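Checklist before submission:
- one chain only
- standard amino acids only
- sequence pasted in full

Submission:
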Amino acid sequence: MVEIEIGVLRSQCLDRRIGNRQQLISEIAAWERQRNAARARIKWMFTTEKARAKMGRSYPLVGAAKTSSAKES
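Returned file contents:
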């Protein structure tokens, strides 16, 4: 989700040359205020089940994590 939001920031705010760091900070802050005021949301389609199927080690089952921890002790 963070990568999606960064992509939106890049396309809506950082799609041009910004002359200096202070202007960059100001532009990002203005974009963020507008995005928050609009209550912008990301429609996340990747369910926990899909995540486990695709990246099992990164999304272990909660019960399985407790069981494996108990076995290691």
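Reviewer check: The CA atoms of residues 6 and 12 lie 10 Å apart.
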